[in-house]
Amino acid sequence: MSPPIDFQIPVAALVYRDASGGADALLAAFAADMLARGHRLHGLLQQAAPAPGGGAPRRRLVDLRSGRAYRVSQDLGPGSRACSVDPGGLAVASQVLRAALDARAELAIVNRYGELEAAGRGFAPEMLALMSEGIPLLTVVAARFLPDWRRFTGQAGAELPLDRPALQAWFDAVVRPGAAAGAGAA
Q1: Which residue intervals of 12-114 are DSSP H helices?
Q2: Cα(163)–Cα(23) distance, rounded to whole angstroms?
Q3: Which of 47, 60, 69, 108 is the most buried (most CB within 10 A)?
Q4: How far apart are CA 117 and CA 44, in angstroms?
Q5: Rounded percentage of the chain residues whose pLDDT exceeds 90
């Protein structure tokens, strides 16, 4: 059972149970809407593309501000069942999260908290840096990684359903009113 949602916690995960449940599409639509409204979002969105020959889908991360794509899947061949994440691709893409820290983003989006982050690798260092600086952070977590996510956040991360109204309510509570670019500027 998920804990009740605390809409004041600046760290949240969209939680999915089976497959991705539309998490990537939800996150991409939300980010596009918030950017269009002038909010200062930074981060990475995950996209999957079919692999030639029917292998595991190839994943890439896209910088939601610039549109630059980072390949993060290694081609292990059509019969491989091994993890295809390319640590080198993640290392290059991590610059987007460091830029979010430098820019004091209103919200930093990290495509996933998964096996690598649970082991202290992947984007874990950047996520911890963002959280320690008080920059609101949003990610996606598979239910099987919830115990790791809870340890990672010290039990202090909000767990959101794959639901736009819940995501919007969390964002509205965490991001100060009038934070959109130019809103309330003198």
Answers
A1: 23-36, 87-102
A2: 9
A3: 108
A4: 15
A5: 68
- Domain 11-47+58-174 listed as CATH 3.40.50.300: yes
What tokens does 35 get? 């950017």
The answer on pLDDT for 85 being more than 80 is: no
Reported confidence tier of residue 81, pLDDT bands at 50, 70, 90 = low
CA gap 29, 26 in Å, rounded: 5
**Hey, which residues does 62 pair with through a beta bridge?**
45, 69
Which string of DSSP letters, residue by residue, matches 134-158? T--EEEEEEGGGHHHHHHHTTT--E
Residue boundaries of the structural domains of the chain: 11-47+58-174
Residue 151 neighbours by CB under 8 Å, 6+ apart: none
In the predicted structure, residue 182 carries a pLDDT above the cut 50:
no
